[in-house]
Write a structure and sequence with these properties.
Elements: E1 2-6, H1 10-23, E2 28-33, H2 36-45, E3 51-55, E4 57-58, E5 61-62, H3 64-69, E6 76-80, H4 86-89, E7 94-99, H5 104-123, H6 127-142, E8 161-166, E9 169-174, E10 178-184, E11 187-192, E12 197-200, H7 204-210, E13 216-220, E14 223-226, E15 230-235, E16 241-245, E17 253-255, H8 257-267
Parallel strand pairs: 1-2, 1-3, 3-6, 6-7
Antiparallel strand pairs: 4-5, 8-9, 10-11, 10-14, 11-12, 13-14, 15-16, 16-17
Pfam families: LytTR (PF04397), Response_reg (PF00072)
Domain Response regulatory: 2-115
Modified residues (4-aspartylphosphate): 55
C-alpha cells in the first residue's frame, strides 16, 4: 500500500509515519507534503497513491482546497484536532476521520476498513460515494447546533504532566509548572514558570486537546498560554491584541481580530 502523508506538524508526521510502519509493515510512505500548494503539485506529478492521510489545517489553508484544484481519486483518511469539519470531510473521498492525537487502534481500523472496501470499490466505483452520502445525511440529521468544535473532554481526561526525554534521561514536568507551549522550527517546546524550555514530541494541535481550556488558550498557531502567564494585553491595530507573556517570549505575540473576542471572554469579560 502506497500512502501520501499530508501534515504540516513535524512531530505528528513523524509519529504517523512510525505508526503506519507498526500497524501495516508492508505500507510505504511515498510522499510527505506540508501545504495545500505542495500537495496539489505532488498529486499532479506522481502516480495515484492507494491512500492519503490528510491533516485538515495546513500552513497555507484548509486541505479541502486541494480538492478544488486537483482531481483526487484516492481514498482519504482525515486527521485533525477539531471535529467541526467532520461533515465537510465526508463530502469528499474520505473513508475515515481521526481526531488527534491519533491512536494506533484507530489508524489500524481505518487501514482495515480500506482493505475491506478495496474489492467492492473495484467492482462498484460509485459505492464509496454512495456510502459517504448516506453517512453525511446521518451526521447532518444528528448534528446539534450546540456541538463544540473542540473534542469533548472532562477535566479528569486533561493531561497533568508531560514526559521529557533529554538524552538518556527521562523526567516529568507537571502541567502546573507550564507557562506556555510554543513551536519553533516545526518543533514543540514547553516553557516553565522558572524559564526552562523542554522539547516535547507532540504537535501544537495535539497539545491543544490535552490541556484544560479553562486554564490554557491558543493565542495563535505558534503559542498556547496558561492564564497566569498572560502579563499584558494591549490593543493592536485592526482589532488585534498584542500579548506580553511571563516569562518573556522572544517573539511578538499577536491574537487575531477573529480570536480577540473569544480571548477576552476567556480572560473573564
Amino acid at each position: 500500500m502506497n500512502i501520501l502523508l499530508i501534515e504540516d506538524e513535524e512531530a505528528t508526521a513523524r509519529r504517523l509515519r512510525r505508526m503506519v510502519q507498526e500497524v501495516e509493515p508492508t505500507a510505504r510512505i511515498v510522499g510527505m507534503t506540508v501545504s495545500v500548494d505542495e500537495s496539489v503539485e505532488w498529486l499532479q506529478t506522481h502516480p495515484r497513491p492507494d491512500l492519503i492521510l490528510m491533516d485538515i489545517e495546513l500552513a497555507d489553508g484548509q486541505s479541502f482546497e486541494i480538492f478544488n484544484r486537483v482531481t483526487v481519486t484516492s481514498p482519504v483518511v482525515f486527521t485533525t484536532a477539531y471535529d467541526e469539519y467532520a461533515i465537510k470531510a465526508f463530502r469528499v473521498n474520505s473513508i475515515d476521520y481521526l481526531l488527534k492525537p491519533v491512536k494506533e487502534d484507530d489508524l489500524r481500523n481505518a487501514l482495515t476498513k480500506l482493505q475491506c472496501l478495496k474489492e467492492s470499490l473495484l467492482e462498484h466505483p460509485d459505492s464509496l460515494k454512495t456510502s459517504l452520502t448516506n453517512l453525511l445525511r446521518q451526521m447532518a440529521a444528528t448534528a446539534s447546533p450546540e456541538s463544540s468544535a473542540q473534542p469533548v473532554q472532562t477535566a479528569s481526561t486533561y493531561r497533568d504532566r508531560f514526559l521529557i526525554r533529554q538524552g538518556q534521561r527521562l523526567f516529568s514536568v507537571d502541567v502546573a509548572e507550564v507557562a506556555y507551549v510554543f513551536t519553533r522550527n516545526k518543533l514543540t517546546f514547553l516553557k516553565t514558570r522558572d524559564g526552562h524550555e523542554w522539547m516535547i514530541d507532540y504537535s501544537m494541535d495535539e497539545v491543544s486537546t490535552m490541556l484544560d481550556p479553562q486554564r490554557f488558550f491558543r493565542l495563535n498557531r505558534q503559542i498556547i498560554a496558561e492564564l497566569r502567564a498572560i502579563d499584558k494585553v494591549n490593543l493592536y491595530f485592526n482589532g488585534k491584541l498584542k500579548i506580553g507573556l511571563r516569562p518573556i517570549f522572544d517573539e511578538e505575540v499577536i491574537v487575531s481580530r477573529e480570536k480577540a473576542g473569544e480571548f477576552k471572554v476567556w480572560l473573564g469579560e
